Amino acid sequence: MQRAEFESQLNELKDAAERSLTGVSGLEDLQSWEREYIGSKGSLTLMFRALGGLDSADRPEAGRLLNQVKQSLTATFENRETELKAGATAARLVSEAVDVTLPGRQPQTGNAHPVSLMIDELSEIFALMGFQTVFGPEVETGRYNFDLLNIPSDHPARDVWDTIIMDTLSEEIVLRTHTSPMQARVMEESKPPVRVIVPGRVYRYEAQDASHEWMFHQLEGLAVDSNIRMSDLKGVLQELARQLFGPTRRIRFRCDFFPFVEPGVDFAVDCAICNGKGCRVCKQSGWLEMGGAGMVHPRVLAGVGIDPEVYTGFAFGLGIERLLMMRYGISDIRAFAGNDLRFLSEFAALTV
Amino acid sequence: MNVPLKWLNDFVDPDVSVKDLAHRLTMAGLEVEKIEEIGNDWDHVYVGKVLGVSPHPDADRLVLADVEAGKHHLTVVTGAPNIAAGQTVALALAGANLIDGHSDSGQKKVLKPTKMRGVMSEGMVCSEKELGLSDEHEGIMVLDDNAPIGLPLQEYLGDSVLEFEITPNLAHNFSMHGVAREVSALYDIPITVPTGADLATLPAGNQNLVVIENTDLCPRYAATVCEGIEVGPSPAWLARRLQNAGVRPINNVVDVTNYVMLETGQPLHAFDRDMLEGGRIVVRTARAGEMIETLDHIERKLDPDRLVIADASKPVGLAGVMGGVSSEVTDTTTEVLLEGANFNMKSVRHTSRALKLRTDASARYERGVDPNLVAEGMARAIALLLLICPNARVTAFADVYPEPLQPTTLTMRTSRFEQVLGISIPMTEIIDVLGRLGFDAETNADSSQLNVTVPTWRKDVSIPDDIVEEVARVVGYDTLPSTLPWGQTAPVKRDPVYQLRRHVRDAAAAAGGFEAVTYVTDSETDVDAFRGRERGSAGLIVDVPVERMLRIINPMQSGRNLLRVSLIPSLLEPLGANLKHTSAARLFECARLYVPNGPDELPAEVEAIGFVIAGERESLSVYGRGGELDFFDIKGMIEHVLQRAGIPDLTFEPAIDPALHPGRTASVSSGGTKLGILGELLPDVASAFGIDDVRVAVAEISLTAVLASLPSGRRDVPVQRYLPVRQDFAIIVDEATPAGDVERTLLDAGRPLASSADLFDIFRGEQIGEGKKSLAYRVTFIAPDRTLTDDDLVKFRKRIEKNLKQQVGGALRV
């Protein structure tokens, strides 16, 4: 074959290929085009074989031309391929449009009980102040529930109508009426310094109404050391109130009687809703009662072998449900053991 | 206890508002629960005088009363049977808004001039009921003669009544005098105590007037004999005060005893002396078989250890609790024997408890009354009795008090105040405050110690810290700063059970469960419904027959007297309740099971988590696949929770339980330790708990066992760098071969590189033969040090094929 003939064939092929490519509208057509022209058996590839039939002097120039055409066609093909792919993706995205207001696929999840969440929160708050969370038995002996707490057997608190009593042969065994028995148990186990909180269920022989439950949760606190003062009790409770109800809350002590503390007080927090001015929630008093507290009675310390002349301690107790009622404006304590999902599911959200 | 302010003002006058007074007392430990205002709704009501009464011209039962009240002078038509000229009365004018005396509901009505049988009645003479003072509506209320005519009634009779809650330690405040002493100390103002008779001048009686056989139970007994008594109604002022204090007036003698008890705190009792055999008193314990009819007209049998007041032959009163009918003061009584005594608080308490009889007297004795108070009470009672019965005279007085109680002395370090409170109070202030409260205090020479004389009425004060509290509550807790404990802290450990509980709780919630809190008691009926009547174990995961369950003597909910050994029955109740308003419920609870030890020992408290689920698997949605929650849902939850807890190898095996579906129940264990049980509830059992027509799946896991099964020590966590290789195996086994066995065989044969085997298809059909099933697993292999090749897998494939054949009779399907 003569060089002129080769060149004219090449030009024809180039023109034909370019014309053909302009007519390609889909990726499948493009692949056929690739096979026809620049694939391993394509017509352009076949032209390389024809190079051998040319005069050796003409071969370099013809080869150069052929490569030029191949590069040009390949570049055009690749551009077209990019173009067509982009178009196809765009078309797919358009076709996949959804109604974004349709509901999301819901995972089936639940959440912890508000009482558990409050106990966890209190445990964290007190851990920051160096208090360890411990738990004690719910079925207790009269010795721990009463005797070691300076509640002798003729004390009114031991009246049968306050305490749920177990049927035993001779030993006095009760459902604990408070978390306080753990005071004695903890102090028997470990010598001062002691700093613990004790959350847990407690039981009273008490008729149920909107503010009374026969089973509820308490949190006991106890700190014993050689330098614990009542002002420390106030500081710790103020810190608690601030963590729970806001950074400007104040604590008020009122003289009260609990056999296992002396002096004994009940403590209240100024109402966060009216800032202590008096409103419906705090019954116009400006204060919300949180629990009972005081300095550990010397007889309680002595009863567990701690010298009350050297060591002093404070103790406090508060009702978990009551705290939750204060925080969430819940008016009926019976909701907590009611276990209605409409109530329980309200506590999934974080409260800060 | 109710304290009318006017009565309190006889002792102290702090000149502050009632609100301020109530607040101050409350903060100091005497809690005022309520303030009742008497008379603040008595507008247009005045003290009036009945000038004359004339017959109604046209009605036999009505009269015309001519009543004057200062500038008001009017005619009132009334049917009151007791109205008479010269009386001082409460006169209501038009516009007064008073209780309708004829209604039972306490409804109020505005008074208007009304024509009654032709005569205009311009006002009304009031009964006690109309003024809201009592239910008395038989006649009009007659005031004391010296009542100032024309004064608004509110100024004359109105009062503020403070209602106190008295804590057990504050027995000494259980009287007007006691509260007044507090007020005097808190406001630092003087106190005036009303005068009584001089006991020293009274004639001594017969030697045997009073005999105490048991001085342990009765440390003191004083008796006054009074002749010339005329029993009748009390003067209006006295009756009024009793009523304001919440005590119903009865007759002048009884009213005096009650009045003095309220005023001084000393309970008193009056006997009709003519009814006392021998006219004398013996304080002794009851004799076998003795009976007494008490003033509430109940015939009571007396236990031999019961302390009684007797005459020469028989019991005439329950000491410190209630008198007897036989010697009750009546209209015909002319001679009384007045008792002022002190009884042992425990003895009174036992009598009161045993007979279920609480009285104002027993309430005081139970809290402990100062024996020295007898003198004050008796002196005051005699004075009042002689004032009210002008013809009466004391003929005999005896006071048996063998061991007079002396004040005690308490010595304490002066530094104790600061050690306990954290503030420094000047010693002069401490001594002053204590003095106001009736304590004598003085420091020693170097001021290191304080010696405090404790008055006999303060039985509650026995240790130095009691003195600290006395000072603190008067100085005020507001003066305490807020500090934080300092110094060494205790080493803080985290409680492993609490950590585990929080962890499984969060996992259970993430798996769809809502945490519940249920009561810890079951009834025997619940246990029977749950476990059947074969009387096997009442628990699912602990073995306790119902007879051995811990029993409550006084359960709160009737019949529910057993401490639970399974959480499931109490969870079924809220499950059923929730299914009434939702399509599905998944509940769980972390709580304790009470496993009995010996009869007098505390039970073991096993930490457990229980699950109950029922209803639709997914909430209604456009994506839903639906279906009913069943065994595999509860199994998935348990797998999730236990894997999250960190239990490595879970084994589920078929199990049998009387409450659960025989073909859908499994035990779950790890390393040979049983952790719990799961299954679907038998339809009959669910039905017994009120849940019908829905599958209920339940599970109970012992967290105590889980904690013991957790691997201890270091856990290595590999970081995988190489790609896993996955290969599918279809294995043909007998229908009866459990999939779990096949999976275990696969994984064992694939050790150490096979990391998981996921079952993705179960096929049954002609191709594999009858009674066979083909289980398709995708097994993932991964090596820590290289990417695996096909050659690696060929080796495993051979071993897997061999082991399947040997261990589960399985064949690889090609």
Q: What's the topology here?
A:
The complex is a heterodimer of chains A (352) and B (814).
Chain A: H1 3-23, H2 27-37, H3 43-50, H4 59-95, H5 114-128, E1 132-133, E2 139-141, H6 142-145, E3 173-175, H7 181-189, E4 194-203, E5 215-225, H8 230-245, E6 251-255, E7 261-270, E8 287-296, H9 298-303, E9 312-319, H10 320-328, H11 341-344
Parallel strand pairs in A: 1-4
Antiparallel strand pairs in A: 2-3, 4-5, 5-9, 6-7, 7-8, 8-9
Chain B: E1 2-4, H1 5-9, H2 18-27, E2 31-38, E3 45-56, E4 59-69, E5 72-78, E6 88-93, E7 97-99, E8 108-110, E9 114-116, E10 119-121, E11 123-125, E12 142-143, H3 153-157, E13 159-165, H4 176-187, E14 210-212, E15 220-227, H5 236-244, H6 252-264, E16 268-272, E17 281-285, E18 291-293, E19 299-301, E20 307-310, E21 315-318, E22 322-323, E23 336-342, H7 345-354, H8 360-367, H9 373-388, E24 393-400, E25 408-413, H10 416-421, H11 427-436, E26 440-443, E27 449-454, H12 464-475, H13 496-510, E28 514-515, E29 521-522, H14 524-531, E30 562-563, H15 568-579, E31 584-595, E32 604-615, H16 631-645, E33 651-654, E34 660-670, E35 673-681, H17 683-688, E36 696-702, H18 703-709, E37 725-734, H19 739-749, E38 754-763, E39 772-781, H20 790-808, E40 811-812
Parallel strand pairs in B: 14-17, 28-31
Antiparallel strand pairs in B: 1-13, 2-13, 3-4, 3-6, 4-5, 6-11, 6-12, 7-8, 9-10, 15-23, 15-24, 16-23, 17-20, 18-19, 20-21, 21-22, 25-27, 26-27, 29-30, 31-32, 32-36, 33-34, 34-35, 35-36, 37-39, 37-40, 38-39
Radius of gyration of chain B: 42 Å
Taking the sheet with the most strands of chain A, its summary is: 7 strands, mixed
Oligomeric composition of the shown chains: heterodimer
N-to-C CA distance of chain B: 93 Å
- Poorly predicted residue ranges of chain B: none
* Helix share bin of chain A: 25-40%
* Terminal CA distance of chain A: 90 Å
Structural shape of chain A = rod-shaped
Main sheet makeup of chain B:
7 strands, mixed
Low-confidence stretches of chain A: none
Q: How does CATH name the architecture of the largest domain in chain A?
A: 2-Layer Sandwich
Percent strand of chain B? 25-35%
Summed up, the helix count of chain B is: 20
CATH topology tier name of the largest domain in chain A:
BirA Bifunctional Protein, domain 2
- Report the CATH C-level class of the largest domain in chain A: Alpha Beta
